[in-house]
Every structure is written in C-alpha cells, then in structure tokens.
C-alpha cells in the first residue's frame, strides 16, 4: 500500500535528510495576531498546535485551509480543513471562531483561496500566525512573501525533529521523500513566480542530490 511504502534508511540517508530538514524549518517569535492561518496537511499535530495558540490568546480566530490531495485522500474521510476543524471543536474551540477553506490542494491555493474567502466574509486582517509542519515553514514563508506581501506574518510550527515527524500514516522513508520534494519546489518555484528566491547552501544542495541519487524521488515534480 502507498501509505506504507518503506525501505531501510541508511545512516547517510538520515544525515542528509537532517541537513535538509534543518534548512526547511523556520520559526519566528510568537506575538498576538489577527488570525491563526493553518495550512493543513496529513499531520493532525498542526491542528493541536493551532488550538494551543488560540487557548493561549495569540488570536481570536483559526482559519483551516486545505482540501484533499493525492496523499491525504487516504488519510482523512473529509477535507483536511474540515478534519482539522472537527479536531478543534473536540478541543473546545468555539465554532464561531473557526473558519474553513476546504478547496485548496497546494500552498499557492491555500493563500489565494484564503484571501478570497476572507474578502467574501468581509474580514480584514493585517497580521497572521501561519502554521504548517516544521519542514514546510520555509516554503510557506517564501510563498507568503511573494503572494501576500501586504500582511505581517509570523511563521510557526509544532516543535518536533525529523525523527519525531513520522506518525501512523507517514513513516520516515516517506517523510524524507516529502522533504526532498519540498526542497525541489523551493529551488524551482521562484522562476514560476510562486515564491521568493532564497540561497541554497552547498551542503543542502549536496544532500538533496545525494538523496535523489538514492531514489528518494516520490514527491518530485516530474
């Protein structure tokens, strides 16, 4: 089954993956904001983190953004956003403080559809706490810099390492495939106008090419 795809991860594979993971992980100091903006994924820990921020008074509303993609359609029975929202309700977050955008299937759509939804709801925001998996935070930052520059964004994520990233639907082999694909998008997407450009250190580039040579290519753009 695709979700259970795996093979032995060597020590060098893991060392290279950690270099990429650390490069992809960004986290700003937390401050209060108008909205907690959750770019959903396969990892429900992101929803728990958003709820904790809400309960600690960092924002008065949470917006969950995410439909289903090729992977999460095998994880959730409903859209990512609706699944995260259901989790939030069970955590005691009032329904009136939850906003759901459940059509997007990638980071660009998360941003575009969320902006459109807020405009339709006549909600104005100038500051957001944007939350994703740790390894997606750099991509989110670069995409927001390019596609929503008028707002102030705080980038955040739950605290866990590469070795702690796997969960019941995603093992370490799949996580490494995912971060290799995320780095490829950081390299390619500025040319397409999707995100800001960033310098890729030589050590990160070497780790990326090494893992591709080891056929960690399931998440690559062909």
Q: Roughly what percent helix?
A: 40-55%
Number of helices: 7
**Biggest sheet architecture:** 5 strands, parallel
Radius of gyration: 17 Å
Kindly report the spatial arrangement of strands forming the biggest sheet: 3-2-1-4-5
CATH homologous superfamily designation of the largest domain? HUPs
Reading the helices and strands in chain order gives HEHEHEHEHEHH
Q: Which second-level CATH architecture of the largest domain applies?
A: 3-Layer(aba) Sandwich
Query: How many domains make up the 3D coordinates?
Result: 2
What is the average per-residue confidence, as pLDDT, rounded to a whole number? 94
Low-confidence stretches: none
Could you say what the CATH topology of the largest domain is called?
Rossmann fold
Task: Calculate the terminal CA-CA distance, rounded to whole Å.
Answer: 22 Å
What is the CATH level 1 assignment of the largest domain? Alpha Beta
| Overall 3D shape | globular
Judged by helices, strands and strand pairing, the structural class is alpha/beta
| Percent strand | 5-15%
Number of strands: 5
Protein name: YdcF family protein
InterPro entries: Cell_Envelope_Assoc, DUF218, Rossmann-like_a/b/a_fold
Pfam families: DUF218
């Amino acid at each position: 089954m695709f979700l259970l795809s795996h093979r032995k991860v060597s020590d060098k594979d893991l060392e290279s993956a950690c270099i990429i993971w650390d490069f992809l992980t960004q986290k700003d100091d937390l401050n209060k904001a108008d909205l907690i903006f959750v770019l959903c994924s396969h990892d429900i820990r992101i929803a728990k983190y958003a709820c904790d921020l809400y309960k600690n008074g960092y924002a008065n509303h949470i917006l969950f953004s995410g439909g289903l993609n090729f992977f999460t359609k095998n994880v959730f029975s409903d859209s990512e956003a609706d699944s995260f929202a259901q989790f939030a309700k069970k955590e005691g977050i009032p329904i009136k403080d939850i906003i759901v955008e459940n059509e997007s299937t990638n980071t660009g759509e998360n941003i575009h559809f969320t902006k459109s939804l807020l405009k339709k709801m006549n909600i104005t925001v100038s500051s957001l706490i944007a939350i994703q998996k740790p390894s997606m935070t750099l991509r989110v930052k670069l995409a927001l810099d390019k596609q929503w520059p008028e707002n102030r964004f705080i980038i955040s994520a739950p605290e866990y390492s590469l070795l702690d990233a796997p969960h019941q639907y995603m093992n370490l082999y799949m996580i490494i495939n995912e971060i290799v694909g995320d780095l490829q998008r950081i390299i390619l997407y500025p040319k397409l106008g999707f995100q800001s450009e960033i310098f890729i250190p030589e050590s990160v580039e070497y780790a990326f090419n090494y893992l591709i040579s080891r056929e960690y290519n399931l998440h690559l753009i062909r």
